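User: Could you go from structure to sequence for me? I need the amino acid at each position, not a summary. Structure tokens:
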């Protein structure tokens, strides 16, 4: 196996708080081990269009606390084509890069897998997505921060919901996995969570309305995972209007607010550990794996498994939301 001398690092897909902490850890762990580091801008776009710069320890100073990504991120159509990836490989080798660390979600890691297979490039991935929807890992970078942002927002919505005796539908991200909606509901004391893993949305909501809001409660908050097929919270509000016209259901879509902000301590620690482990993994000869965390231990997850959606939602948690909001 050829010795690795220079690592290229990129962030791709949706940004997530903690990506900067991961970039810092990858860079400093690499330099500590006498490896060169090249920062690639705008995800795969920077590989295809040759936007790269050499990183020093100083390049990553004072970023651990910043949300977003100093490398920028993008969705790059060209990289999904064989010609685009050929250009990427040419630029990468011209720059002297002989291994990559890719921080992103399932799309970014799918791209990494294809590139690694085509060009025999050692690549290690880090799970960078607020949705917590990757296989083989209990946590993804950014999830904890997004969850805290949601809870903070729902606490505020609760004040106005209670004052007006209203039903609020709060839409959160996570169209493939309901972790943000479900754990956001538990943490904020919401009355229900509507998640992709659950099928009978309107029945659940009818049950909620009959059980709680109608009898004893003077407000109700339901966390709804975004859902392009059903229209998410807006779609649900429309159905409530038709089936329970007596209720004044209001919708708040948290949207990109959930992606921003300074990462929580938990996300900074996770990103730092995973980032450092990515370099250890490459030096150990690991390739085409994502760093995951399982029961507190860092693990190597093959890209093929990481990109399978993780929907190990605990059904008991769905009941817990209901039981605790009686
Ligand atoms: P998020 O979870 O926030 O959506 P993501 O990593 O899943 O993040 P995508 O937009 O799906 O985001 O993917 C990011 C980029 O990865 C794409 O713009 C493309 O450049 C690359 N990519 C995705 N899928 C493939 C693929 N099948 N082949 C090659 N490249 C891909």
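Assistant: Here is the amino acid at each position, in order:
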């Amino acid at each position: 196996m050829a010795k690795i001398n220079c690592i290229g690092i990129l962030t791709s897909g949706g940004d997530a708080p903690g990506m900067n902490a991961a970039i810092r850890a990858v860079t400093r762990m690499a330099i500590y081990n006498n490896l060169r580091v090249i920062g690639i801008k705008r995800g795969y776009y920077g590989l295809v269009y040759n936007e790269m710069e050499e990183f020093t320890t100083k390049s990553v100073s004072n970023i651990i606390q910043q949300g977003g990504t100093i490398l920028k991120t993008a969705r790059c159509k060209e990289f999904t084509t064989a010609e685009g990836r050929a250009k990427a490989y040419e630029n990468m080798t011209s720059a002297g890069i002989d291994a990559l660390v890719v921080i992103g979600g399932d799309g970014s890691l799918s791209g990494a897998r294809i590139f690694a297979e085509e060009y025999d490039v050692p690549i290690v991935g880090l799970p960078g997505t607020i949705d917590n929807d990757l296989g083989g890992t209990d946590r993804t970078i950014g999830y904890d921060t997004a969850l805290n942002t949601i809870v903070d927002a729902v606490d505020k919505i609760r004040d106005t919901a209670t004052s007006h005796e209203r039903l609020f539908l709060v839409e959160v991200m996570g169209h493939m996995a309901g972790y943000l909606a479900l754990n956001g509901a538990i943490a904020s004391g919401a009355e229900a969570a509507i998640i992709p893993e659950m099928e009978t949305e309107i029945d659940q909501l009818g049950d909620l309305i009959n059980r709680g809001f109608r009898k004893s409660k003077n407000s109700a908050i339901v966390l709804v995972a975004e859902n392009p097929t059903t229209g998410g919270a807006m779609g649900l509000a429309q159905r409530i209007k038709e089936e329970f016209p007596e209720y004044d259901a209001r919708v708040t879509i948290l949207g990109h607010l959930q992606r921003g902000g300074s990462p929580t301590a938990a996300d900074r620690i996770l990103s730092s550990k995973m980032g450092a482990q990515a370099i250890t993994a490459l030096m150990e000869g690991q390739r085409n794996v994502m760093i995951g965390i399982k029961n507190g231990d860092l693990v190597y997850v093959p890209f093929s498994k990481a990109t399978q959606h993780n929907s190990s939602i605990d059904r008991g948690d769905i009941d817990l939301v209901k039981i605790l909001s009686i």
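One structural detail worth keeping in mind: The chain has a mean pLDDT of 92.
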